[in-house]
């Protein structure tokens, strides 16, 4: 029976990918988005309601008889939109404002990890210049420095040069970086391979989605500045069943218990950004939402009833048998403005994108506008080409074969997403350290 009427809040690639995945289920009557984007609007009704306007979102839910809201981005979560919708009786998948502090405050997340015994990098928070300087002396290069608070992707600096580290510390202490006020978090540099594991949580229990990887650097071979993500792949061969079990038991479950003890049960997606070292796994960061672009690669290999799972989590009674892991793999490659991330030029024309869909390959839209017969970049990340295949290598080959048929100008993509099965050419943190600004 088609009974779910789902509203997805947000307007990026992650939200289009969620809509596309949920809409294929028999139990889902309709998926709508607010605000969505122009590409998603080809397939779904999109409403121009701001993502943090809880009152307008609640009115939309009432008008459209929505019985499940899924919140995509961090800003509405940090603004308490999930609390406001739940108070109005709307089942909402997304943590409360208080629980979303696991993402919105790096220091809060550290405190929770320490109290729950979750393995993570040693860290200190400082509010004064002299003390921050002394911490830089103690920690030594490369320095990992984080603004405490949402910082629109500019909140982390990994610096090899002391001068760069000091500039970033000054930015944090002067309140120019991060919404967390005039403080800075300085932490131990971890080496290893990065991985993303996302958990669907109902406050007490969780289900893990397939492990994934995000390729954050702007240029091939992990050069250039950090971006929101130039591509992704799933699953990650490096993460086997026993490592996954360890992440569930030693990271996700203790955090759920700690949040529940504090009276802020975590109901939503817990994104674990992990560093897999030679002898252990440690947490780099938590996000309070689906990863973008990991979601684009993880959802195509997620089988079963995702809508029912999200609804059950939102209601606090997780249906942990609802989804399955499908065989095979998926790779997503971002098509971006030529100047992304630092100097957007605007207007990059991606020709042929509207003709690319086939059984293995599809397009996820983000910041793209239809102009004079082609999709045109209207922001940094315009769209993603997502391909599926029996292995990461096969999916990757299909993705690039599809991309090679595109024309136009003013856009580019990385050519090495998921090379080596997703782990191979992957940045070792040590090799990629200098100048990373992301988060
Ligand atoms: P975050 O937003 O905390 O994930 O940080 C953004 C990026 O900075 C991560 O994906 C890592 O590449 C890098 N990073 C963050 N924390 C550390 C750390 N403690 N050691 C090494 N690299 C880190
Ligand atoms: N892919 C990283 C993020 O969603 O923050």
Describe the structure.
This protein is α+β, with helices and mostly antiparallel strands and 439 residues long. It folds into 4 domains: 90 residues, 3-Layer(aba) Sandwich (Rossmann fold); 64 residues, ATP-grasp fold, A domain (Dna Ligase, domain 1, 2-Layer Sandwich); 147 residues, ATP-grasp fold, B domain (D-amino Acid Aminotransferase, Chain A, domain 1, 2-Layer Sandwich); 93 residues, Phosphoribosylglycinamide synthetase, C-terminal domain (Glycinamide Ribonucleotide Synthetase, Chain A, domain 4, Alpha-Beta Complex), CATH 3.90.600. It is built from 12 helices and 28 strands. The protein starts with a strand and ends with a strand. The site of glycine has 6 residues, from loops.
Give descriptors for this structure:
single chain; 439 residues; alpha+beta; Rossmann fold; Dna Ligase, domain 1; D-amino Acid Aminotransferase, Chain A, domain 1; 4 domains; six-stranded antiparallel β-sheet; five-stranded parallel β-sheet; 12 helices; 27% helix; globular; disordered C terminus; binds adenosine monophosphate; binds glycine
